[in-house]
Amino acid sequence: RAHGMKITVIGTGYVGLVTGACLAEMGNHVVCLDVDARKIDILNSGGIPIHEPGLLEIVRSNAAAGRLEFTTDVARSVAHGTLQFIAVGTPPDEDGSADLQYVLAAARSIGRLMTDYKVIIDKSTVPVGTADKVRAAVADELAQRGHSGMAFSVVSNPEFLKEGAAVADFTRPDRVVVGVDEGDDRAAMLMRSLYAPFIRNRDRLLVMDIKSAEFTKYAANAMLATRISFMNELSRLAEVMGADIEAVRIGIGSDPRIGTHFLYAGAGYGGSCFPKDVKALARTAAENGLPSQMMAAVEAVNDAQKQVLARKVASVYGEDWRGKTFAVWGLAFKPNTDDMREAPSRVLLAELVRRGAQVRAYDPVAAEEAARVLALDLGCAPEQAGITLVNSATEALSGADALIIVTEWKEFRTPDFEALASALRDRRIFDGRNLYEPALMRDSGLHYLSIGRPAC
Ligand code: UDX
């Protein structure tokens, strides 16, 4: 059994923190390292720097039990773990390829300081071939110290966590993908015993070669993003033809080859993974002389889809929105997170500001993060641009002409429609997530424009 393995996790972002906390919860002794002293301070004082359901509790309880520690001390973190997870950021370069500087710096620090066998595990989403670069970086550091003979393994272990469900995804995974070198039984055995407690069905641990493991991550996200862009494109067609994309979704999803999950047309995909991974895969394909028409299309459709709400607003109010006030429900790129990265709400808000509208925006948890990123997007405080961030869904409606729904938080699902109709001057809702039944909206006296369904 894996109990009591010594593990280091480098990087305390979403992936690193969830990985560290969940591995500690299984009884391992985990040290989490970050160069950002502010993050480590928050963690050491019993908080977490992100919003993720269930994470705070397991961070606190495992820290209290002494199984989970947070440090900025590189020497200590390298000395601690036999397993060294690299879970640092891989932001897109200007050309869309993943920037590996943090990954390789982490690898170098391990090579510089290790004194015994280590398994170095790429958890960050990295392009195919990164494990080779990690290996070279570690070997180079060892050689500089005259320790070329010191044994280490490099493993690829991509994550498939969904924000908002990350703890559950880690604890009860659909599958765990582990890429190891052929014949590296030592690393394979350690990875098997590490994940055994999380996997009741042994066939969910997929051991493969390193390049295939690295590629699997991109292939998975690219496939999911493709489904979404495909549905979004169909939704536009459904609208002009007078069909209902929700009926079509059920109609096609009941074929098990298609499946019902992840087929929702909406306001476009955002987040830290899909936009970045689609770009990176396109870049890799181009670099290898096989430019990807699919990825280019997936990205272009998504860029256009992020404009869909603004386009619908323009279809009703024309080009000039001065004197209009819009309530906006939901800012995070999806529910149960405060993550604003690549969120469709940012595209909408920029357009509302550009056309002179007043905005009253509400998000259950992302308000603070939204204020921060909007200031960057707009180049001024949101209030100065006419955006007021309010504390409840009802407050957002006050004085509004129409409501725009961008994120499908649960609390938006069953509003009091009569109250909505009387609060909104124009009795109008633009719904980017298809939360309501059009017929019900009509009965409540609301004008309702949603995605890929007949307007009413
Ligand atoms: C995703 C993958 O699901 C996960 O496996 C991977 O490890 C990281 O990227 P995440 O970005 O957290 O996870 O969010 P996810 O729930 O997958 O949603 C991504 C985006 O797609 C969101 O903007 C969401 O609104 C959108 N989406 C999702 C749709 O528009 N329609 C759908 O049917 C599903």
From TrEMBL:
This is UDP-glucose 6-dehydrogenase. SUPFAM superfamilies: 6-phosphogluconate dehydrogenase C-terminal domain-like, NAD(P)-binding Rossmann-fold domains, UDP-glucose/GDP-mannose dehydrogenase C-terminal domain. The active site is at residue 273. The keyword Ribosomal protein does not apply. One of its GO terms (biological process) is UDP-glucuronate biosynthetic process. NAD(+) binds at residues 34, 39, 90, 125, 163, 276, 341. Signal peptide: none annotated. The keyword Metal-binding does not apply. Its EC number is 1.1.1.22. Residues 327-438 form the UDP-glucose/GDP-mannose dehydrogenase C-terminal domain. The lineage of its organism: Bacteria, Pseudomonadati, Pseudomonadota, Betaproteobacteria, Neisseriales. It comes from the Bacteria. Substrate binds at residues 160-163, 217, 262-266, 270, 334. GO terms for molecular function: NAD binding; UDP-glucose 6-dehydrogenase activity. NCBIfam families: NDP-sugDHase (TIGR03026). Pathway: Nucleotide-sugar biosynthesis; UDP-alpha-D-glucuronate biosynthesis; UDP-alpha-D-glucuronate from UDP-alpha-D-glucose: step 1/1. Belongs to the UDP-glucose/GDP-mannose dehydrogenase family. It comes from Vitreoscilla filiformis. Keywords: NAD, Oxidoreductase. It catalyses: UDP-alpha-D-glucose + 2 NAD(+) + H2O = UDP-alpha-D-glucuronate + 2 NADH + 3 H(+).
